[in-house]
Amino acid sequence: MVILALDIGERHTGVAFVDEANGIPLPLDTIHHKSIDELALSISKIIDEKNIEHMVLGLPLLLSGEEGSQVAFVRSVAQKLQENAISITFIDERYTTPKKGENDGDAEAACTLLTLYLRKKSN
Questions:
Q1: Contact (CB, 8 A) for 19 and 114
Q2: Which domain does 40 fall in, by range?
Q3: In the chain, how many domains are there?
Q4: How many other CB atoms are there within 10 angstroms of residue 122's CB atom?
Q5: Could you give the CA distance from residue 90 to residue 81 in angstroms, rounded to a whole number?
Q6: Rounded to whole angstroms, how far apart are CA atoms 73 and 13?
């Protein structure tokens, strides 16, 4: 199965994918967007190009584990993405944001989401 992970932000969304045949998450370019529709269009293109069969979306819970305003935004994006008829799994993204460095932190966070998802799925 080919899986796409998204670390969704209001202006920047980290993207990574994995083909379970090899199990190695690969980062893609971060999507810079101004609206949910613009983001959804970019993601739809990736879905077609990479033959995505499932999506994993990071859920930005508060440190307490409760849902804040960012979760509502992610859920609204998910609702738009469901028009692609691909199943979606939400995964707690607390503690997945990497420390600032040379790499694309958004894409790195998406890779971490994939790694967490694959570990959880294998247990």
A1: no
A2: 2-122
A3: 1
A4: 7
A5: 13
A6: 12
Three-state secondary-structure class, residue 45:
helix
| 86: DSSP letter | -
- pLDDT tens string, the chain, 123 residues long: the values are 999 999 999 999 999 999 999 989 999 999 999 999 999 999 999 999 999 999 999 999 988 888 888 999 999 999 999 887 889 999 998 867 666 655 667 889 999 999 999 998 887
The CA distances from residue 108 to 6, 25, 34, 48, 87, in Å, are 10, 10, 21, 22, 22
CATH at residue 98: 3.30.420.140
For residue 93, count CB atoms less than 10 angstroms from its CB and return exposed for 0-12, middle for 13-18, buried for 19 or more: buried
